[in-house]
Design goal:
Length: 182
């Protein structure tokens, strides 16, 4: 059976990066639920770190990775310069190909840059998130966009369902589930 784990970064009292009243943890939870909906429609079994607005701790999220065909944790980047932007994914080298496809999907829908010169892929030793236990356990950390960039945040909010659908397509293809007519 194909199992995909989709988890939301931060949570359990940690909001992650914040822009006004919008938190990274809320965006990650929302996107987790949207991607999950599209994957389940295809008959894929999905593991989540909570239901609805629940966003369990990183430790609980890491426990879900084992025996998954693919595990992705959703995050946003943030930087002091509000113009910093783009999408990237942190993972082990084994997941380079899926990282590139995930980043390409977000970049295409949002019209934002793919960061770095490896198609958005970054090895686990880089990035602003020091706690990369998720990557060490075999998962992918997808930094969707910069929450600190007002333009990217507005684009995200306008297009989030499209982003979720495209990411679900990429994930389903990766785990070998054929597209269905929808
Ligand atoms: Zn984060």
């Amino acid at each position: 059976m194909t199992i995909v784990t989709i988890t939301a970064g931060h949570g359990a009292g940690d909001p992650g990066a914040v822009n006004g009243h919008i938190t990274e943890a809320n965006i990650a939870t929302d996107m987790r639920n949207m991607i999950t909906l599209y994957l389940e429609r295809r008959g894929i079994t999905v593991r989540n770190d909570g239901q609805g607005s629940e966003n369990q701790s990183l430790r609980q999220a890491i426990r879900l990775i084992k025996d998954s065909d693919l595990a992705i944790e959703l995050h946003c980047n943030a930087f002091s310069n509000a113009r910093a932007g783009g999408v990237e994914a942190l993972a082990q080298a084994k997941d380079k190909a899926i990282c590139r496809k995930l980043c390409e999907a977000v970049s295409d829908v949002m019209g934002i840059a793919v960061r770095g010169n490896e198609g958005g892929f970054k090895s686990e030793g880089s990035g602003q998130h020091s706690r990369l236990g998720y990557v060490r356990a075999g998962g992918v950390i997808l930094e969707l966009f910069f929450i600190s960039n007002p333009s990217e945040l507005a684009t995200y909010q306008a297009k989030k369902w499209l982003i979720a659908r495209e990411l679900a397509d990429v994930i389903a293809d990766h785990v070998g589930v054929k597209s269905c007519v929808s």
